[in-house]
Amino acid sequence: MGARRDFIKKTTVAAIGMGLPGSINAMTAKSYNNILGANDRIHVALQGLGRRYGAYIPSIAAKQNNVRLNYLCDVRGSQLEKAAQHVSEQISYNPKQEKDIRKILEDKDVDAIFMATPDHWHTPGACMAMETGKHVYLEKPCSHNPHENEIVVAFQKKYDKVVQMGNQQRSSPQSIEIINDIHNGIIGKAYKAIAFYTNGRGEVPIPVQTAPPEDLDWELFQGPAPRKAYAHDTWDYNWHWYGWDYGTAEMGNNATHELDIARWALDVKYPEYVDVIAGKHQFVNDGWEMYDTMEATYAFADDKIIQWDGSSRNGYSKYGRGRGTLIYGSEGSVMVDRDGYELYDLKGELIKENKSGGNEGGTALGGGGDLSTRHAVNFFDAIRGKEALTSHIEVGAISQMLTHYANIAYRIDKGFNVDGNTGRIFDREAMELWKRTYEPGWEPKL
């Protein structure tokens, strides 16, 4: 067992490439079998048992993936119990339950962590996991701020772990196909992408300071964030909208996905200028503290542009669907979403489409489905050296920067210039929001 553990924990990104589809040949099945053995099992833990964790269970439960779920981890007892019941319906054994991820990280038998915590935990938790030799499936956003973007990539390079960012559309065969076609000129020069998201989120309570739920470890929930008193109803999904200590607003929550597709399609890196128009326009007297509507513009070199159009609490679908990315080219256009793509000529006539018929195309809370399963299986195969990651953290982090730029522009109420090569912002006021304040002892440092 010791030799097997050593192999899994030392599997490196150098062996599997940078995770760009088609960029590097994955290790062949024959060579993999000679090194590791096809029956080798990967032991995992799930951290964060809210709305997202269920998306990973099908890939973990499937016998052909040879994965064992050792731990369920959450800071609230009732969520642990609920998850244990849910998992018991799909696997034939009982994972251990633990509130403190640090105790799980001490277990040398655990190979990988699925991290589905609130945003403020993502980078610190991933760095802790890598330090203890674990591979990480890191949900979006992969970072809470630009500084964490740099740190999580630096940790991955230092500890040589497999780190998959949870932007699962990167594993869509239809998205991979059409973006390869775009790069090969199917719509001529791709010059503009509109990424969009529409939802009908409702009113949220005005926070009232109170005692936390009895089964919630409020200290652990805060983790890397500065300590403050609990307020109702910031627990559960609402932490997204109450200030910047825990969440990253709708940008980090959902724009991550579509902006990643837009950047991938246009084959660009960092923008040279960012500006936003944003505000809170629905339920104006409720407890929601961020914008609920945002239009962001990113100007890139070579006259390329990405626009974000997000409405969190007005459900009118002006693009005919709840989410997706529209890509314009000199010779046509493409609409791509989680269900596939539609290719149009310059007259706007449909000339080709490829739909997956999958079950992960909407905007329902939590999500999960065929793309999440594909993405998790890719993570397992990358750990074993059989495939390249479809969303290597270094690639995902670049897309994540687009969300951070927009949030910063909103918070300082002005646009700014960016170094298109390094991603650094040419504005002192904006750079003051490059990183956040941590609870003493929690800041990840190399």
UniProtKB/TrEMBL annotation:
Signal peptide: none annotated. Residues 42-166 form the Gfo/Idh/MocA-like oxidoreductase N-terminal domain. Residues 205-328 form the Gfo/Idh/MocA-like oxidoreductase bacterial type C-terminal domain. It comes from the Bacteria. This is Gfo/Idh/MocA family oxidoreductase. It comes from Flagellimonas aurea. The lineage of its organism: Bacteria, Pseudomonadati, Bacteroidota, Flavobacteriia, Flavobacteriales.
